[in-house]
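hiii, so i know i said id send this last week but things got crazy w the move. better late than never?? heres the sequnce for the chain we talked about at the cafe, plus the structure i predicted for it. fair warning i was half asleep when i ran it
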Amino acid sequence: MSAAIREHEQEYLAKSSQLESLLQKKTAVYAVEAEMRELHRRLVDLGRAILAPEANPAGEQDYLKASAALQDLLRQREAAWSLTPEIEKLHGDLVALGDKLGWTK
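okay and structure toks below
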């Protein structure tokens, strides 16, 4: 095996591991959809409760906690979506390395 081939294979392994890690981060966020929906429903219910004339002040703290949790999930989703350009670049790098290794012929 030539040194160039070995170098390309090592680079391929490193980039494919990076790509796998990014895809795991991105796909893990898909699982929070149901949690986001539930937090939204909770916010709606809590919002109604704190706007009622006989509102319990503790409800406002519950609302703030639920709101913060939902915002955190939304930030996680946004961060996952922002990985797309890096994923696309790594994919292109792997295609190019596959060409150099003669795997796409």
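btw The helical segments are 3-30, 33-51, 58-81, 84-100. thought thatd interest u
miss u guys!!
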